[in-house]
Design a protein that fits this description.
Elements (H helix, E strand, L loop, with lengths): L3 E4 L2 E4 L4 E4 L1 E6 L17 H8 L7 H5 L3 H14 L2 E6 L14 E2 L4 E5 L6 H7 L6 E5 L5 H12 L7 E5 L5 H10 L2 E4 L1 H7 L15 E3 L11 H10 L10 H7 L8 E4 L8 E4 L2 E5 L1 H4 L4 H4 L3 E5 L5 E3 L3 H9 L12 E2 L1
Parallel strand pairs: 4-5, 5-6, 7-8, 8-9, 9-10, 10-11
Antiparallel strand pairs: 1-2, 3-12, 12-13, 13-14, 14-16, 15-16, 15-17
């Protein structure tokens, strides 16, 4: 196979690298990417965790919430870009920042509710979701009977069908999973988040059981790091998560193919050396950057995250750092130090 590929009318020598589709992070809360991990679980359920940690008038939430949401979202996008995720599903209201040159693609065509516990109009939200879109909801995020019962409540609401996507689903019993399978619903697995907050996650056999299952990070409030850390965790558990961040994730989220979204890596799960979204270079290693003409190279700035090799991203990192530090002088990206 020819190791030379043309991107933005520049021929790049990618010798020694594998070309893969861009990864899909099926569940994130992009606006929390600067927050520290919070809580002292394990908790019985997500409601107990939320009530324990949500004190917006106290530190560290108070100072982190002073950072404008737009800036926090951008950092969330960069966190995913650095991991080779070209598409992210953000579990919150769609924000105008996503339409103005955001670092990664953010899914727009889906319906959602936060959860059975914290959303009063779940059925209405489900019914308002167009037929071809997925409907995504936190469900069964716990280990107690109340969390286990949520799937039956969702079914009674008429909101459990083949387009329903359950995030976490840790508490589901065999009977609950039987209901999910009969409905043809799918699930999103956030293992490191679950283990931190609940002390438990889905058993590995779910990944090979025929269940439509995607892998995701959740937010740094419960899981430090990024999608590469989730991939490594699953791989260390004896599973290959590649389809869960590619074909299976696209199936779960009903995403169309994006042939112009791809990454170049030394091996699956490694830090990307090149990330291309919509045919445009968004990230590349310093060595590959030397192949760019100076006019194009000038559009990139260095971004170095603790524990990873420095890369160049198509973003004004220095201004972003300055603007963020005006509100929060000392911050980390998903628990890791960053510098330009």
């Amino acid at each position: 196979m020819d190791s030379h590929l043309s991107v933005e009318n520049v021929e790049l020598d990618l010798q020694g690298l594998h070309i893969l589709p861009g990864l899909v992070n099926a569940h994130d809360h992009l606006h929390f990417s600067l927050f520290p991990r919070l809580g002292s679980g394990p908790y019985r359920n997500a409601g107990d965790w939320a009530r324990d940690i949500y004190h917006p008038g106290r530190e560290p939430l108070r100072s982190h919430l002073e950072v404008p949401k737009r800036l926090r979202l951008i950092w969330g996008g960069l966190r995913n870009l650095l991991a080779g995720a070209t598409t992210v599903c953000h579990h919150d209201e769609y924000h105008p920042a996503f339409d103005s040159g955001f670092p990664v693609r953010v899914l727009k065509q889906f319906g959602w509710a936060h959860s059975i516990e914290f959303t009063q109009d779940v059925r209405q939200r489900f019914e308002q979701t167009p037929p071809g879109w997925p409907f995504i909801i936190h469900l069964g995020e716990g280990t107690d009977a109340a969390a286990a019962a949520e799937v039956f409540r969702l079914n009674d609401l008429g909101a459990l069908t083949d387009r329903t996507v359950l995030v976490h689903a840790v508490a589901l019993t065999a009977e609950g999973w039987g209901l999910v399978r009969r409905a043809g619903a799918a699930a999103i697995w956030c293992p490191r988040s679950n283990l931190f907050s609940l002390g438990k996650t889905l058993r590995p056999e779910f990944a090979s059981s025929g269940l439509r299952l995607a892998l995701a990070t959740d937010s740094p409030l419960t899981a430090e790091g990024d999608l590469l850390d989730e991939i490594r965790f699953v791989h260390n558990g004896g599973l290959c998560p590649r389809r869960m961040v590619d074909a299976c994730a696209r199936d779960v989220l009903r995403l169309p193919p994006e042939p112009d979204d791809w990454i170049a890596v030394r091996e699956f799960g490694a830090q990307p050396q090149l990330v291309v979204i919509g045919g445009e270079i968004r990230l590349l290693s310093p060595s590959l950057a030397r192949q760019l003409p100076s006019s194009l190279a000038a559009q990139f700035q260095s971004l170095h995250v603790e524990g990873r090799q420095p890369v160049l991203v198509r973003w004004d990192v220095r201004s972003l750092l300055d603007e963020t530090r005006a509100y929060l002088p000392d911050f980390r990206l998903a628990g890791r130090e960053i510098r330009s």
